[in-house]
Design a protein that fits this description.
Layout (H helix, E strand, L loop, with lengths): L2 H23 L3 H22 L5 H18 L5 H29 L12 H27 L9 H29 L19 H17 L12 H13 L2 H12 L3 H9 L24
Helix pairs in contact: 1-2, 1-5, 2-3, 2-5, 3-4, 3-5, 4-5, 4-6, 5-7, 5-8, 6-7, 7-8
Pfam family, one: DUF1295
InterPro entries: UstE-like
Keywords: Membrane, Transmembrane, Transmembrane helix
Amino acid sequence: MDGNFKRGLISNCIALPILFGFGYAIQLQHLAAAALAVNWFVFVVHALPRNSERFFDATGSLTYLIMIGSAVSTSQGCVSRRFVSASMVVVWCIRLGSYLLGRIMKDGKDGRFDEFRKSWLRFLGVWTIQAVWCFFVASPALVMITSEACHTSVSILDCVGWALWLVSFCIEVVADRQKDRFRRDPANKGQFITTGLWAYSRHPNYFGEICMWIGICISGSSCFHGLEWLSWVSPLTTWILLMKVSGVSLLEKSGQERWGKDPKYQHYMDHTPCIVPALRKPPAYPTDGYVPIVG
């Protein structure tokens, strides 16, 4: 049996029980099935026949929207909590999804998928895993929208969670825009960003992303009951994805390859926190005698 086929078989056999086991625990099996159906549908009609991952991120966004829409359409109870929870996910999803779709349409392909596309079953496993993480990440909002235990009045925890979400969303948006503006400036070609929020954290956008889901979980903590508390897996899943799978590890490996010999880059890496921003701006690199190395 081919090695890639084996990996695909293992990834699907592990991901599917996790998806439906978690769905059963929080009584949202139908939404877990919806997440899987969306990803498998796009895989069958586009990704497999074209051997393409172009709409992978867009499918993730579509998965969130369909889960939230399905949950809202069948829920009753506290209108304020349901409306705010759904709105936070939809706003975040549309903004990030459009940003990622625009990037892949510009770049044409995502090199991360080259190895996975060698086997249809391993490639399918990537889409199955996306269904799992979308369901895990969205779970606190889905619980708040559907659970009878959450059909109560808005509490102080809701307000705290919503405020944290709003601040975190603004951090992510500002960080992404600062980086886009930096990249569009021809004077910065081949350079790395160390200004704005990026002076305080190497990945301020990821800090905002993680804290948004913490905010949603804090809001949900006002009404979670029993196994619904498992929804706190949402920010943990986000942290794992960004730190260990497709975010920090890949970006910093690429950065080391491009600028690893640049003392200014090493100074930035040594003095700037990875995720949680520093309260004070780290010391600037001494420029006396510095000759930039363009990677």
